[in-house]
C-alpha cells in the first residue's frame, strides 16, 4: 500500500471547471495502479482552483514514470450530450510521495467527454534521452497515434473519391475504426493517449502552403479554438463596427464619395492618434516615403545601385529634387537612392466590385535619402513595368493632382501586396505550417514542443476563420478589393516561386535589401533588437538539451518536423534555401528563431497598423475604379475621387482591418508564458532573462518614441502577441 498526495490545478477560463469524475492511474517502473478517484467533500474541479487529494495505491509501482488522467461523466449511463461532454481544462497535476521530491505533470489542455490522457513529468526530453522502455513506448505511441489519425483522414478522402482508387495503407484497421464510429464507439483523441489535436493537411489553393483540413471554426478541437472570452470580444467588435457604419448608411452605398470632406466627416470611426496623423499628413511626400520604412509594409524598400532598364528616369527629371552639383549616377554610386518595386502585380487578375470592373497597377517608386540627413523623399513614380508614351514617369514637380494620384496608385499596390503576400502568406499561412508541423511531429515532452507551443496559440482558429469569412469566394476580399480572391491567389503563387529563407530571417533580409544604414528605419532597429533577444533565448534552450551538433543530427523528431515544414509549407522547393534538414546547433537556433519571430513580432509589425493606415482610405485604397493615367495634366479633383473605392467597399475593408489590427481580449504578450511547460530550473532562468531583455527593449522604444512626431509602436514587446491569433 502506497499513499500519494495529488494536487490539481484547474484553468480559470470560462467553462474550465467540470462536474465529471476525475481519476488518475500512476505508472511506475514496476507496474500501474488502477484508476484512483480524486474526491473530497463538496464540488471539485471548479475554474481557477488548486485542490489537494489523497489517494492510496494497492501496490508499489516503483519510481513514477507517467500519470494517466481519466475523465468520465457522473452517470455512467449518461447519453452522449452536454453532460457527457462537460469539458475540463487541466493546467497541471502534482504528485507527491512521503519520500522524494514532488513531480509536476504539465497538461494545459481541454479534456472533453470520457477521455484518458497520458502525462509525463515536466522535464523536457529529446528522444535519445529517454532512459526507460515505458517512456520510449509512450513517446512512440503518441507519434503513432498522430500518424494513425492522418491515415484515417486519408481513408475518408479515399472513400469520398469513389470506386476505382486503391485504399490507403492500413485500410483494414481504418475500416474497423469507421465501423466503431457508426456505432458511437469512436476512440477519442485523448483515449488513444494523444495530447493536443490531430491536425491533417489539405491544399486550399494550388501553389499555396498547405493548411489545416477543417472547413469551419465550429469543427475545431477545443484546444485550438478561441476561448469563450476571446470569441465573445471578437464578435462584439464585429457587431459594434458593423452597427455604426450601417446606421450611417455607408455599408449599402455603392456610389462614389462626394468629397474628401465627406470622407473626413464619415470616417471618424474609432480614430487612433496614428490614424489622426495619417489624415493630416497623407498628401505629404515625406510621409508617403516614410511608410515604406515604418508603415504597414516595411519589407519592400531596397537600396538601388543600378536603375532597372524598364524605369528610364533621367537627370533632367530629378534635377530639381537632387539639387546642384550631383547627378543620378552619382547618387546611385553614393547609395542614396532606394527602390520599391511592385512588379509582382504585373498582369494580375482584376476584380469586379458592385458590377463594375476594377483596375490595378504595378508601379516602381524611386526614393532619395539626402546625404547628411533629412527625410526620405520620392523622386519618381512609374505606374507600370513597361515604359513608353502611355506610361509616363510622374514627378514631384508635376501638378498637384497628377502627383497625388500617382502616389495613391502606389498606395493601392501596397494594399494588394501587403494583404496578399506580407500579411496573409508570410504572417499567417507560414505560421500555420509551423503550428501544424509542431502538433504533428513533436511529442509533448520534446523541448522544441515546449518552446514553440505558446507561439502557436489560436493560429489555426484565426486562419480557419479567415478562410471562412475573408478569402472565401464572395467574402470580404472578393466584395471589396481590386484584385479579389483570384488576384490574391496569383500573388501568393508568384511569391511562393521566389520566396527565400533569407526573407524570413530579418538580419539577412536587411542585408540583402541593403538598408542597414538608412536613417529612421524603426522597423529595422526594433526588429533586430527583438530578433536578437529571441535568438539569445532560443540558443540557451537549444544548448541545454543538445550538447553537440551530432545531437541535432540524431534527433529524428526534430528532423521530421523540419522536413514536414519544408514539404508542406515550402512545397519542397529547394531553390528557396529553406532547409529540409538541420545539421548543427547554430542552424537549429536560426531556424527556431525564424519560426518564433515570424509567428509573433513580424506578424504584429505588419498587422497592427492596418486600421491606422486604412481608416483614411485615400492613404491605402483597397481598389481603384478607373485605369492608371496614361498621360499627365489630365487629373482633376473629381477624377481623383472617381478613381477611389466606392463607399461600401471602403467601409467593408475598414471593418475587416479594424478587427485584424487589435487583439480581442485574452492576450499573451511576447515572452509571457503562464502555461509552464518547462519545469526545470535552467530553462526557467532563460525565460526570465528573455523577459528582462524584452522589458529593456520596450523601455528603449518608448524613450525614443517620446521624441517622435509619429511614434513607432508596432514592435513594442508588450503589444506584440506571442502568436498569430488575430
UniProtKB/TrEMBL annotation:
Reactions mediated catalytically: (12S)-hydroperoxy-(5Z,8Z,10E,14Z)-eicosatetraenoate = (8S)-hydroxy-(11S,12S)-epoxy-(5Z,9E,14Z)-eicosatrienoate; (4Z,7Z,10Z,13Z,16Z)-docosapentaenoate + O2 = 14-hydroperoxy-(4Z,7Z,10Z,12E,16Z)-docosapentaenoate; (5Z,8Z,11Z,14Z)-eicosatetraenoate + 2 O2 = (14R,15S)-dihydroperoxy-(5Z,8Z,10E,12E)-eicosatetraenoate; (14R,15S)-epoxy-(5Z,8Z,11Z)-eicosatrienoate + O2 = (5S)-hydroperoxy-(14R,15S)-epoxy-(6E,8Z,11Z)-eicosatrienoate
CDD domains xrefs: PLAT_LOX
Localization per record: Cytoplasm; Lipid droplet
Pathway annotation from the record: Lipid metabolism; hydroperoxy eicosatetraenoic acid biosynthesis
GO terms of molecular function: arachidonate 12(S)-lipoxygenase activity; arachidonate 15-lipoxygenase activity; arachidonate 8(S)-lipoxygenase activity; calcium ion binding; iron ion binding; linoleate 13S-lipoxygenase activity; linoleate 9S-lipoxygenase activity
Domain Lipoxygenase span(s) in chain numbering: 125-726
Obligatory cofactor(s): Fe cation
SUPFAM superfamilies with a match to the protein in the record: Lipase/lipooxygenase domain (PLAT/LH2 domain), Lipoxigenase
EC number: 1.13.11.12
The keyword Cytoplasm is annotated on this UniProt entry: yes
Coiled-coil annotated residue ranges, if any: none
InterPro entries xref list: LipOase, LipOase_C, LipOase_C_sf, LipOase_CS, LipOase_Fe_BS, PLAT/LH2_dom, PLAT/LH2_dom_sf, PLAT_LOX_verte
GO biological process: arachidonate metabolic process; cannabinoid biosynthetic process; endocannabinoid signaling pathway; linoleic acid metabolic process; lipid oxidation; lipoxin A4 biosynthetic process; lipoxygenase pathway; negative regulation of cell cycle
Keywords assigned: Cytoplasm, Dioxygenase, Iron, Lipid droplet, Lipid metabolism, Metal-binding, Oxidoreductase
SMART domains assigned to the protein according to its UniProt record, in alphabetical order: LH2
Principal subcellular localization: cytoplasm
Domain PLAT: 2-125
One GO cellular component term: plasma membrane
Tagged with keyword Lipid metabolism: yes
Assembly: Interacts with PEBP1; in response to IL13/interleukin-13, prevents the interaction of PEBP1 with RAF1 to activate the ERK signaling cascade.
Record family assignment: Belongs to the lipoxygenase family.
Protein name: Polyunsaturated fatty acid lipoxygenase ALOX15
Amino acid at each position: 500500500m502506497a499513499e500519494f498526495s495529488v494536487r490539481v490545478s484547474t484553468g480559470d477560463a470560462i467553462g474550465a471547471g467540470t462536474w465529471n469524475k476525475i481519476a488518475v492511474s500512476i505508472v511506475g517502473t514496476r507496474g500501474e495502479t488502477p484508476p484512483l478517484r480524486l474526491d473530497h467533500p463538496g464540488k471539485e474541479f471548479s475554474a481557477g482552483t488548486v485542490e489537494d487529494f489523497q489517494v492510496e495505491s494497492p501496490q508499489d509501482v516503483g519510481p513514477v514514470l507517467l500519470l494517466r488522467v481519466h475523465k468520465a461523466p457522473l452517470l455512467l449511463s449518461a447519453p452522449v450530450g452536454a453532460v457527457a461532454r462537460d469539458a475540463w481544462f487541466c493546467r497541471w497535476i502534482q504528485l507527491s510521495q512521503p519520500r522524494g521530491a514532488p513531480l509536476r505533470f504539465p497538461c494545459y489542455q481541454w479534456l472533453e467527454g470520457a477521455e484518458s490522457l497520458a502525462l509525463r513529468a515536466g522535464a523536457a526530453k529529446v528522444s535519445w534521452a529517454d532512459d526507460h522502455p515505458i517512456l520510449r513506448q509512450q513517446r512512440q505511441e503518441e507519434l503513432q497515434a498522430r500518424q494513425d489519425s492522418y491515415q484515417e483522414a486519408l481513408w475518408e478522402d479515399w472513400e469520398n473519391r469513389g470506386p476505382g482508387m486503391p485504399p490507403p495503407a492500413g485500410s483494414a484497421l481504418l475500416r474497423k475504426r469507421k465501423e466503431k464510429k457508426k456505432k458511437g464507439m469512436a476512440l477519442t483523441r485523448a483515449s488513444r493517449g494523444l495530447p493536443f489535436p490531430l491536425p491533417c493537411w489539405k491544399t486550399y489553393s494550388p501553389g499555396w502552403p498547405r493548411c489545416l483540413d477543417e472547413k469551419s471554426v465550429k469543427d475545431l478541437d477545443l484546444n485550438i479554438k478561441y476561448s469563450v472570452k476571446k470569441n465573445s470580444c471578437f464578435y462584439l467588435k464585429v457587431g459594434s463596427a458593423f452597427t455604426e457604419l450601417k446606421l450611417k448608411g455607408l455599408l449599402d452605398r455603392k456610389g462614389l464619395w462626394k468629397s474628401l470632406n465627406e470622407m473626413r466627416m464619415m470616417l471618424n470611426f474609432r480614430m487612433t492618434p496614428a490614424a489622426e496623423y495619417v489624415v493630416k499628413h497623407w498628401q505629404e511626400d515625406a510621409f508617403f516615403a516614410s511608410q515604406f520604412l515604418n508603415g504597414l509594409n516595411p519589407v519592400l524598400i531596397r537600396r538601388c545601385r543600378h536603375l532597372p532598364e524598364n524605369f528610364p528616369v533621367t537627370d533632367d527629371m530629378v534635377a530639381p529634387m537632387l539639387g546642384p552639383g550631383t547627378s543620378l549616377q552619382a547618387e546611385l554610386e553614393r547609395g542614396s537612392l532606394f527602390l520599391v518595386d511592385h512588379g509582382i502585380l504585373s498582369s494580375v487578375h482584376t476584380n469586379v466590385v458592385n458590377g463594375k470592373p476594377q483596375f490595378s497597377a504595378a508601379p516602381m517608386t524611386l526614393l532619395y535619402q539626402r546625404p547628411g540627413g533629412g527625410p526620405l523623399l520620392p523622386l519618381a513614380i512609374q505606374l507600370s513595368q513597361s515604359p513608353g508614351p502611355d506610361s509616363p514617369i510622374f514627378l514631384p514637380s508635376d501638378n498637384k493632382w497628377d502627383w497625388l494620384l500617382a502616389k495613391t496608385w502606389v498606395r493601392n499596390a501596397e494594399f494588394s501586396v501587403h494583404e496578399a503576400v506580407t500579411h496573409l502568406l508570410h504572417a499567417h499561412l507560414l505560421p500555420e505550417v509551423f503550428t501544424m508541423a509542431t502538433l504533428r511531429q513533436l511529442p509533448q515532452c520534446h523541448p522544441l514542443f515546449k518552446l514553440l507551443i505558446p507561439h502557436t496559440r489560436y493560429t489555426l482558429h484565426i486562419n480557419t476563420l479567415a478562410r471562412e469569412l475573408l478569402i472565401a469566394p464572395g467574402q470580404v476580399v472578393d466584395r471589396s478589393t481590386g484584385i479579389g480572391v483570384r488576384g490574391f491567389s496569383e500573388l501568393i503563387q508568384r511569391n511562393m516561386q521566389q520566396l527565400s529563407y533569407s526573407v524570413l530571417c530579418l538580419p539577412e533580409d536587411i542585408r540583402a535589401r541593403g538598408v542597414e544604414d538608412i536613417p529612421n528605419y524603426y522597423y529595422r532597429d526594433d526588429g533586430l533588437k527583438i530578433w536578437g533577444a529571441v535568438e539569445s533565448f532560443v540558443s540557451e534552450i537549444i544548448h541545454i538539451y543538445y550538447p553537440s551538433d551530432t545531437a541535432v543530427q540524431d534527433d529524428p523528431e526534430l528532423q521530421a518536423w523540419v522536413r514536414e515544414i519544408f514539404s508542406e509549407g515550402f512545397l519542397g522547393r529547394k531553390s528557396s534555401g529553406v532547409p529540409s534538414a538541420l545539421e548543427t546547433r547554430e542552424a537549429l537556433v536560426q531556424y527556431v528563431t525564424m519560426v518564433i519571430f515570424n509567428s509573433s513580432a513580424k506578424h504584429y509589425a505588419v498587422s497592427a497598423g492596418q486600421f491606422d493606415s486604412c481608416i483614411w482610405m485615400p492613404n491605402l485604397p483597397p481598389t481603384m475604379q478607373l485605369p492608371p493615367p496614361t498621360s499627365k495634366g489630365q487629373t482633376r479633383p473629381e477624377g481623383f475621387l472617381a478613381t477611389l473605392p466606392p463607399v461600401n467597399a471602403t467601409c467593408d475593408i475598414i471593418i475587416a482591418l479594424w478587427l485584424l489590427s487589435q487583439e480581442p481580449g485574452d492576450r499573451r504578450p511576447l515572452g509571457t508564458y503562464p502555461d509552464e511547460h518547462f519545469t526545470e530550473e535552467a530553462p526557467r532562468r532563460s525565460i526570465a532573462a528573455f523577459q528582462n531583455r524584452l522589458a529593456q527593449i520596450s523601455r528603449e522604444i518608448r524613450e525614443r518614441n517620446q521624441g517622435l512626431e509619429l511614434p513607432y509602436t508596432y514592435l513594442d514587446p508588450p503589444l506584440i502577441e506571442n502568436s498569430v491569433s488575430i
